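Consider a protein example.
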Amino acid sequence: MADRPGMLDSVRLAARKAPIFQLYRRRDRLRATLCRVNVALGQADPQDPLTRRRVRELDTAAVLLGQARWHAERARATGDTTALKRARQAFTEGQRLADRIEALVAGGNGAYATDRFPILERAGTEIDHCQGVPLVPAITPVVVLRGSDEEMGAQYARQIAAIFGRWILRYGVRRLTADERVEVGRWEAVHGEHLPWLGRFVDGWVAGARESGVNLDRASIMDLWVGHRPPATSWLDASSGLPELPPIACTSLAAWGESTPDGALVAAATGDHELSYQVTVAAFPDDGHPFVHTIFSAAGTLPTVGPNWFFGHPGMSRSGLAYVHHGGGPKFLEPRHSWGYGLRRTPSVWHLLRYATSAHDAREMEQSWPIGDVGRGDQATVGGFYADADYAYIIEGRDDPVAVREAGLLGERDFLYANNSAMHPDAVRSEWMRRAPDGSWLWDREGGYRPATPRGMTKSPGMLLKWLSGRMSTDELLVAGMQFAYWNSYHRNVFLRRMADAHHGHLDVGALRAIYRTVGTAPTGSWAAAVRRYRRTGEWSRISAAHASNAFVAIMKPSTGYYSLCTGPARRGAAPMSPDSAMIVRGETNAFWDLELPDTPTALVERAEALADRLLGHARDTVAGATHAGETASDVAEWLAAAQTDTSSPRDADGIEALGRRVRAATRAQVRARQILHLGDPPPEFTLPERRKPPRPSVGTP
């Protein structure tokens, strides 16, 4: 099979998609402007009424960004010219407001940027809507499942429809061709052999959607979980169209034994991407362990990214097993001759959390499963970062090379960490890394692999055009894209390694929260000049795992059932880790909700409600003893009223949908109360590690 599509076909595709590509550029510009404003506001006094006013104005522009994204995605998916026009209009209005806010903040001007604020409504759902557009919620909803596989599938469909609206049941669902149905059947057969519960879960989903008033084709729902295309045959899946250059997102750290105060496992992870309609699932199956897991999109597909088969992390079970992170992707270490039909990541994660009792069990199961669809990235096949109280591993490669990281391999002392690059010394033996010219890679024990020459941004039309025209081979494109991703990931690896070493013996839940509030720095001077420099050289600023594209930060302590999540960054003003990672979260809270995973969903809900009540009591005491003025007083009153409303909702119903509504109300109340508590008493953070030269590297094979 050719490693690239025909030039004429690609030119036609590019011409057809040109209006959408233009929208993406406008999106990136608006996101970057809002991100720069947010970085500046992160340095201001959070209790100053002018700061609160600026945050409100920023959120108004973020609503326009959300509307523009919604209409742009509709235009991309359907070719709707009205949606295209609405997207352009929202981007224009949002950019105009963002530019004005930025100018006022930069000039220290106290004038208001706008006095027009969006009117938000629930539209019969649990999330905000503006002019008919469902806005991404600022607090991640929790979906609670209980019972048989069919019952849990039906409950999932009904609950996401109740939360977001019935549109989400159709989101990403495609009308399959006859050939695509055959492919779905092939993928389902492999999953059915190893994960027999998945087919029953999908059956329940179809029934639950029907009960919600949406008739769906079973094969189309199975497609969301397993896909409808044959396995990739080339890296970056280049043979199927435009290649998907690798992301530079997601971070993780797990610690246990001597690295923690009590020896218990604690772990933290982030999802680093543009926040979408994500959910956290708390499942109590009739057979197997209860578990909790966050998925990046409730519909199994992300805007502009496409299907990800419900990819997400972290997760943990009542057995004490934790799935921390995908484990360093993209990696592509297994040789192409071993690729084929296999298991998608999230179905495999749910199976292991449900049925494995330890990390050793999980590793044994993973290594027994097919290699799978490696060419489409970590979300497309099994592997990753699992841990329990005594042992942890990260599978980077399962065959030629077998590259499994364990603590101590790189000098770690009862901790492991992963971002978006391979770190195992044997990774360089992989087929794709061997194709790079000699001397292309450096390696060290803190950061793993990095390019010998720093690599700037590679997601550019110019590079794709070179590839399409034959002036760049797929091998060269692959190496360029991977070096771009690995260069950024290397710095986040070093950040987490130095944090783990500096706080060794004290890595508990509080320390992990502080790590993820320790932000990097933004470039000084001209943004445009910084972006040009980055494109040429890869030089940016001081990079942290806590950055602007944290769609969430989650922290776990499986021995106590503790699972805590903050939607968006854990600290306002987190700097972007690269120009294309300059993102913004509407209604950023910088506050966590907490769950405790027990044996029953009723106990889960009651404990979340009890915590919400305690936090609300503390918040009331804080408000009574404080004096706030202007916009600050308005914000505090709004948060307090929201928390009081959610804690006053009925608590006597115990049907599964009612339990879901109750836990979502409790977690919202927890966050609003903590916003009040943090306003005058922000949580701790650590000092950003000083720049220093990396350890003496090895060239090529370590």
Q: What stands out?
A: The longest strand covers residues 550-557.
